[in-house]
Write a structure and sequence with these properties.
It contains nine helices and 21 strands. The chain has about 375 residues and is of the alpha+beta class.
Length: about 375
């Protein structure tokens, strides 16, 4: 297959390539973006074909752009807890949690999956924001804490889809079958050291494979591809169709540091019993909870013809000529045969059945507030 012409996105050596870059080029990527200052393949086929592969077989996806912020040292636990309002004492070594990194005003800096590697060592797999710099800056406010803040030299891949369990058993052995949802284990794949987690950004059954010797990226990629051939494995980019169906937000698109957990409906990620000084965001979040929020993010269905692709702009929601909200992510799902997405609306309009007018890239549409996730609300599929 033809290599992608990187001159279309590249100018100089400022952005980095992942350990899997050379391997991914062998499979004909059809586009790249930049994520956490690294090149990120967005697809190898149509988004619809990759969606079908995810639902029916197994997919391989280079997500090493999810750079791991590592917090370690004697005071690693205390510092990691400062970053998030979720109680990390409830996360065992060997376990992972979805957490929010929040600032002192309650704003969401990042929404990583956090893995507790040792008692005082934590990995935060970052969405595309400079949370490493945020953590380094925060360290200046706590000079007495003995802590090391760095980017861990690891590179995750996602192995996702209903056949991922059989593939992972073949790759690392039957012990992977005992790995619980949001837990991790160390393993080797053809002698290559990895950390395997039961996590993913797809709402499907899946795993993430963290390469801990980043000089061996091509070998690991090809080993997974070879073992996956009987399961019809396909390299893909991120499936925005499936992640929106599953109610997964994308930091930078659906929320930023201007939004807080309560507006996002993610209050479950705030442990109110923690003392104020445990996490820098808790005092502000308590104030927000007391006064209430004026806006919320909602699931919406949009009428009209199928959207040809994911929206590239945040669409205004208007009422009587005034902008009252915005659609952040919207796409057509062939499974539901509907246009679906997320919309920020005033709290009084964030009610099921409310209709609003959206000015989209493909004309004016009517959006109706509906429940989300749009598929598998109880999350039975990824936990299975």
């Amino acid at each position: 297959m033809a290599e992608f012409d990187m001159s279309q996105v590249q100018c100089g050596a400022r952005n980095r390539r992942t350990p899997y870059y050379e391997a991914t080029q062998r499979y004909g990527p059809q586009g790249f973006t930049v994520y956490n200052h690294m090149y990120f393949p967005i697809r190898y086929d149509t988004f619809e074909a990759e969606f079908e592969a995810l639902l029916n077989d197994v997919t391989l996806w280079d997500v090493s752009v999810e750079r791991c912020l590592e917090i370690s040292g004697p005071d690693g636990f205390a510092f990691a807890q400062l970053l998030t309002p979720r109680d990390l004492s409830k996360c065992a070594v060997g376990q992972a949690k979805y957490v929010l990194i929040c600032d002192s005003d309650g704003g969401v800096i990042n929404d990583p999956v956090m893995t507790r590697m040792e008692e005082n060592t934590f990995w935060f797999a970052l969405a595309s924001s400079d949370a490493l710099l945020f953590a380094r800056g925060l360290k200046n406010a706590y000079p007495d804490l003995e802590v090391t803040i760095r980017e861990a030299d690891v590179a995750p891949l996602q192995v996702q889809g209903p056949k991922s369990r059989q593939l992972m058993e073949e790759l690392v052995g039957p012990e992977v079958l005992d790995l619980k949802y949001y837990w991790w284990m160390r393993a080797e794949i053809e002698g290559i050291p990895v950390v395997v987690t039961r996590t993913g950004w797809t709402s499907e059954l899946g795993y993430e494979v963290y390469l801990t010797d980043t000089s061996r990226g091509v070998a690991l990629w090809e080993a997974i591809i070879k073992a996956g051939e009987p399961y019809n494995i396909r390299p893909t980019g991120p499936s925005d169709i499936r992640r929106i169906e599953g109610g997964i937000f994308n930091w930078g698109a659906d929320m930023t540091y201007e939004n807080n957990p309560l507006e996002l409906g993610l209050e479950r990620l705030v442990d109110w019993e923690l003392p104020d000084d445990a996490s820098i965001s808790l005092p502000a979040l308590r104030e927000i909870k007391q006064r209430g929020v004026s806006r919320m993010i909602n699931g919406v269905e949009l009428d009209g013809d199928p959207f040809p692709t994911l929206n590239n702009l945040k669409w205004p929601i208007v009422e009587d000529g005034d902008r009252v909200g915005k659609v952040t992510s919207a796409i057509y799902t062939p499974r539901l045969k509907k246009n679906i997405g997320y919309a920020w609306l005033p709290t009084d309009k964030s009610k099921l059945g409310t209709t609003v007018t959206v000015e989209s890239e493909w004309g004016t549409r009517t959006a109706t507030v509906v429940e989300m996730p749009f598929v598998d609300a109880s999350k039975k599929i990824p936990v299975s």
